[in-house]
Each structure stands twice: as structure tokens, then as C-alpha cells.
Amino acid sequence: MNDSLSRLELLRFLERVQEADLERTRRWIADEERRQLERQQGEQARPPAPDWVLELGLNRDAPAVYVHEGGCWNAGKRSKGVDRSTALRALAEGVAACPHCRPDSELGYLEA
């Protein structure tokens, strides 16, 4: 240790280091509070999930593949929300009901 520095000078140095650490921690806290607020606002602004989802084919000309309930975990990325009548019409036109969420049961659709 350098004998030319007094104990008081060392303590003042430690104080400056700790103040800098505290300020950095407060910035981290403020940043995290801002991120949480943004997440919360994003969740509140998110539109509600659709009641029914139509999973589309691989290209825009391909027929739909499945009808799903709105929260089905198995709905593919190429999906769009539809209303009840569109979901019923798709089932009537031969689009398969998802075997996992069974929207045909929920819609009360009985095959003719």
C-alpha cells in the first residue's frame, strides 16, 4: 500500500467508488422500471385473441388447412382470425377441424 495516502483519503476514494456504483444501480433500476412499464402498456394495447382461426395453406392460392379455436397451441404461423360464421362455413366447405382443439365441437358443427 502507498504510505503517502492517508486512511481518510482512502475512505474518500472508497466513498466515490460506492457513489458511482449506487448511481449505476439506480440507472439499472430506472431502465428496468421503464421496460416493465413498456411491457405492461404493450400487453394492454394488444388486441384480443380471435375466437376462431383459419390456418392458411402454403401459398395464397392453396386452400385453408385447418380451423382452430383462437387460443390453439397448434395453429400455424400462416393463420388469420375469423368470425364464427366464417369458421362454420370453412368446416362446411371441407376444411378440417384441428384434432387438438376441436373447434367443430365448440362451434356445435355436426358433419352432414
Distinctive features:
single chain; about 110 residues; alpha+beta; four-stranded mixed sheet; 4 strands; rod-shaped
Number of domains: 2
Computed over alpha carbons, the radius of gyration is 29 Å
Strand arrangement in the largest pleated sheet: 3-1-2-4
The SSE order reads: HEEEHEH
Give your account of this protein's structure.
The chain is α+β, with helices and mostly antiparallel strands. It has two domains: 1-46; 52-107, no CATH class. The protein contains three helices and four strands. It has a four-stranded mixed β-sheet.
Summarize the structure.
The chain has 3 helices and 4 strands. The protein is of the alpha+beta class and 112 residues long. It holds the Pfam family DUF6233.
Itemize the secondary structure elements and their pairings:
Elements: H1 7-45, E1 52-55, E2 66-69, E3 79-82, H2 84-92, E4 96-97, H3 103-107
Parallel strand pairs: 2-4
Antiparallel strand pairs: 1-2, 1-3
Pfam families: DUF6233
InterPro entries: DUF6233 (IPR046200)
